[in-house]
Write a structure and sequence with these properties.
By secondary structure, the chain is α+β, with helices and mostly antiparallel strands. It has 2 domains: 122 residues, no CATH class; 138 residues, no CATH class. The protein is 25% helix and 24% strand. The strands form 4 sheets. Strands 2-1-3-4 form a 4-stranded antiparallel sheet. It has a 4-stranded mixed sheet with strand order 8-7-6-12. A two-stranded parallel sheet has the order 5-11. A hairpin with a 5-residue loop joins strand 7 and strand 8. Helix 1 packs across helix 5. The chain starts with 9 loop residues before the first helix and ends in a 13-residue tail after the last helix. About 3% of the residues have low confidence. It holds the Pfam family LEM-3_GIY-YIG. InterPro entries: GIY-YIG_endonuc. This is GIY-YIG domain-containing protein.
């Protein structure tokens, strides 16, 4: 069972606070009675404020007087908190909030304590959202893969489709799909391509959060002509692996790699296996010195 949270983690807030698209629409539900109590819009940790605001006489954020209907939220023993949609402008959030309220009142005939029946299409609990975007830092020296890792920048990773069913090739690549974007196409040398064992997708806007990982089964090549008339090879990696399994194998689930450096304007970086010497040196540094006991001489 996921532990109930009182606010979003800093990494989740970094994802949600997307400039002018920092707004989201949310609903509060009574899980025991399976009904929705409230629909609203906001940003940051707004969704959490109702639980303590409802016990007061005035909302410190909006200044609105808290009526007896909203106070029902503070009395709810099993409150569900769901994000319906996020990365909205304030205008979009206001329109979505209004549409949901009117839909519930007119179509479902419910009386809201601001009600939709159920959690709403596309709804996600705040705990699940925080789990999805809650990343912890991992030093690069704690990673020791059994092969070369190619790390790829994916700027809008959290907005991409995460379906993994298709085998993406050059002729059916999909820029709106996370798996397709991770696997290529990449301009690298053939000798490097043949050594790559893993490809990982990295969201640079969140301290290099690792958002995808695949084990390479092979690659295909496409030769193109550059603007200067030169021939250039692009490589697209193939895989039969699943991202969650490879993330677990590499120890990169919900991890970010702030020490990972991409070249100026570059989209690729590499994480190499440690040499035997490096591994031995680390073992020496982490092995405690044995305690030497001095025996007392008998006088």
């Amino acid at each position: 069972m996921v532990a109930k949270i009182k606010k979003f983690s800093d990494s989740t807030l970094s994802v949600l606070n997307n400039g002018e698209r920092r707004f989201y629409v949310y609903c509060l539900t009574d899980l025991k009675k399976d009904k929705v109590l409230y629909i609203g819009k906001g940003f940051g940790n707004r969704i959490f404020e109702h639980e303590w605001v409802a016990s007061r006489s005035q909302d410190p954020v909006s200044g609105e007087i808290i009526d007896r209907k909203l106070k029902a939220i503070s009395k709810c023993k099993k409150l569900g908190r769901y994000i319906i949609s996020y990365h909205l402008t304030e205008v979009e959030a206001l329109a979505a909030e209004s549409a949901l309220i009117h839909f519930v009142k007119s179509v479902l005939g419910k009386k809201l304590k601001n009600k939709i029946a159920g959690h709403g299409p596309g709804g996600i609990s705040v705990e699940e959202l925080d789990r999805r975007f809650g990343f912890s830092s991992l030093p690069l020296n704690e990673i020791n893969p059994d092969g070369l890792i190619l790390a790829i920048k994916i700027h809008n990773a959290f907005d991409l489709d995460t379906d993994e069913e298709l085998d993406y090739l050059f002729d059916n690549q999909d820029d709106a799909n996370l798996k397709s974007r991770t696997l290529g196409n990449w301009v690298i040398g053939k000798d490097v391509a043949s050594k790559v064992k893993y490809v990982i997708g990295v969201h640079t806007g969140l301290q290099n959060a690792v958002v995808s990982a695949y084990e390479v089964d092979g690659f295909e090549t496409m030769v193109e002509e550059t603007k200067n008339g030169r021939k250039q090879s692009r490589y697209r990696f193939r895989t039969t692996s699943r991202s969650e399994e490879v993330l677990a194998k590499l120890g990169l689930q919900q991890k970010c790699l702030p020490e990972l450096k991409f070249g100026s304007g570059g989209e690729k970086a590499y994480i190499r296996p440690k040499t035997e010497t490096e591994t031995e040196q680390e073992n020496i540094q982490t092995t405690p010195n044995p305690k030497i006991k001095k025996e007392k001489t008998k006088s």
